[in-house]
Amino acid sequence: MHWLRMAAILLLGLSTCRLTMASDVGNAWVLDRLDRTDWPEALISQASMDTASRGEVLMFAKALLASEALDEEGLEQRLGVPHVQLKSIRHVRDGLWEGLLRTYRNASQNCDEQLFCPCVRSVADLRQLAAAFTGDISPAHALWASKSQGVHEQMLNEQLRMAVLRP
Q1: How far apart are CA 43 and CA 36, in angstroms?
Q2: What secondary structure letter does DSSP report for 38?
Q3: pLDDT at 26 over 70
Q4: What is the DSSP string of 87-149?
Q5: Which of 133, 69, 145, 54 lies closest to 101 in space, CA to CA?
Q6: In angstroms, rounded to a whole number, what is the distance separating the alpha carbons of residues 160 and 155?
């Protein structure tokens, strides 16, 4: 059971964009970045895996939240597409928020006094937490956060691009 949960946590982003990855070999570098080698702490226990998962969820949520501030023209430019379908993009975003909420809740069971562990009851709570999250609690965590941000933005861009190209 432990290995199954660990695999599910490690593949959070991958599960949301597996079709994109399968259809675009050029994105293979994203697969390599999901091994958590940049996470500043040893992943030696369920608690450490859960902490890393909460951090990754919050970084992805932060990227997702930032994408929502873009207007149609901004999305077209960011995604490199001539036209966006806002309905498809909203649908993908809603699904991502629900998946992030489930993953955060699963990784937050019994996490009293651990990093990144405020109680989150709803997507609205997760959105608030992500808006304030920086990951900058130590120099090592700050380095992880800066690298993680780019990976999650790329993964999100691919999901949104897929929503436009294959609604």
Answers
A1: 9
A2: T
A3: no
A4: HHHHHHHHHHHHHHHHHHHHHTTT-TTSTT-----SHHHHHHHHHH----SSHHHHHHHHHHH
A5: 54
A6: 9
Domain range list for the chain: 2-165
- Mean pLDDT, residues 39-61 taken together: 89
| Euclidean distance between CA atoms 14 and 137, whole angstroms | 26
pLDDT reading at 87 higher than 60: yes
Residue type, 98: E
Among the listed residues 100, 141, 140, the one whose alpha carbon sits nearest the alpha carbon of residue 122: 100
Residue 64 tokens read as 């997702």
Give per-residue pLDDT as tens, 139-167: 888 888 888 888 999 999 999 998 888 76
DSSP 8-state class, residue 82: S
Q: HSE-up of 3 (CA within 13 Å, CB side)?
A: 0
